[in-house]
Design brief:
Layout (H helix, E strand, L loop, with lengths): L2 H13 L2 H8 L3 H15 L4 E3 L4 E3 L1 H28 L4 E7 L1 H18 L3 E7 L13 E4 L5 H6 E7 L3 E5 L1 H7 L13 E4 L12 E6 L10 E5 L5 E2 L2 H9 L4 E5 H10 L3 E2 L4 E3 L4 E6 L6 H14 L36
Length: about 350
């Protein structure tokens, strides 16, 4: 059975006569009669009952027609996909992202993506509040937490990269104040608190929910919730990072934001086995049954850029001071942040 046979039986069923089917297929009526008879003979089944008024499918004919619909749609989908691959993607992509990650990592990646596909227009809106993507016309967002509640049922989420929020301080602060020996000791230190709007958990900003890496033989507790305090807080994560670099206290910050400073030794890990969970980088988007090719290309590109966690380097611990660990990698190729020393 060939594709033209499937189109023939559907045309006959849909139009109810051989003459009308011939007209819709732009072939002569005798050719329809001959081809249908040959098809029935090859299948050994009568597909249509013929009367002087109407041609109607038999039970076997209905089965063939139902399968023909699926098979023909498969042909059309395959052709459309192959044609789409031959065409250079065009159109507009509208995205949202947080200020920090959007400026430091996503922005440069999008510039490389647009250079690869020059007929695409990419619009990136940086914000600290996740928009209603569908209502505000966004194709998607790159965000620092996964979906929860009702959004999880309405949107699509895909992890682009793993990430941790880690405790860090400058060597100068640790030299002056000492290193905390355990999580609860953080309460006796000056902790720098970032009151950013992207906190998805809904807990107070000065409550740090931490998790400890452990092996199978480890029996100590692996989670801790500690309320921290300090004289300096801000809604700007970059400002909090600068305070930390200046030796003002201990900070909880994403690895992607401080990788260059960790690699150089300007910052060092504090309690390096502890970190805050659920800081991964995610692609979020309104649910669509069939995303446009330009969106699929973008997601694949972002995965290629971030899955390897380009911000992850060998980091010196607090006890190592400014000395890099043996085998440390050079600082990642993220844009450097100059810091005023006036």
């Amino acid at each position: 059975m060939e594709r033209s046979d499937l189109e023939l039986v559907l045309a006959v069923r849909d139009h109810g006569s051989l003459a009308a089917a011939a007209l819709s297929l732009d072939i002569a009526p005798p050719a329809v009669t001959k081809r249908l008879a040959a098809l029935e003979a090859s299948l050994g089944q009568k597909l249509f009952q013929r009367t002087t008024r109407r041609v109607s499918p038999t039970a076997e004919g209905e089965t063939v027609c139902d399968r023909a619909i699926v098979l023909l749609q498969g042909f059309r989908d395959l052709e459309a996909e192959l044609q789409e691959r031959q065409k250079e993607p065009t159109g507009k992509i509208r995205l949202a992202a947080t200020f920090g990650f959007g400026r430091l990592w996503l922005g440069p990646a999008l510039a490389r993506f647009q250079e690869r596909y020059p007929k695409l227009e990419v619009q990136l809106q940086l914000t600290e509040q996740l928009p209603d993507l569908a209502a505000e016309g966004f194709d998607g967002a790159v965000w620092l937490w996964s979906l929860r509640g009702s959004q999880a049922a309405q949107w699509v989420s895909r992890r682009l990269a793993r990430n941790q929020r880690v405790l860090v301080a400058s060597p100068a602060y640790l030299k002056a104040h000492g290193e905390p020996l355990d999580v609860q000791a953080l309460q006796q230190h000056a902790c720098l608190i970032a009151r950013e709007n992207s906190n998805a958990a809904g807990q107070p900003f000065n409550v740090w929910q931490l998790k400890r890496e452990k092996d199978k033989r480890d029996t100590e507790r692996s989670e801790a919730r500690v309320r921290v305090n300090g004289p300096l807080t801000s809604n700007s994560g970059e400002l909090v990072r600068d305070w930390c670099l200046d030796g003002r206290g201990i900070m909880l910050r994403s690895l992607w934001d401080i990788a260059p400073q960790l690699a150089s030794g300007e910052l060092v890990r504090v309690l390096p086995s502890w970190s805050m969970p659920d800081a991964d980088i995610h692609w979020l988007a309104p649910y669509r049954a069939d995303a446009p090719r330009r969106i699929r290309l973008l997601i694949d590109f972002l995965l290629s850029q971030f899955t390897g966690e380009p911000w992850k380097v060998n980091r010196p611990s607090a006890s190592a001071g400014r000395r890099a660990l043996p085998g440390s990698h050079p600082a990642p190729s993220a844009p450097s942040r100059s810091r005023s020393r006036s």
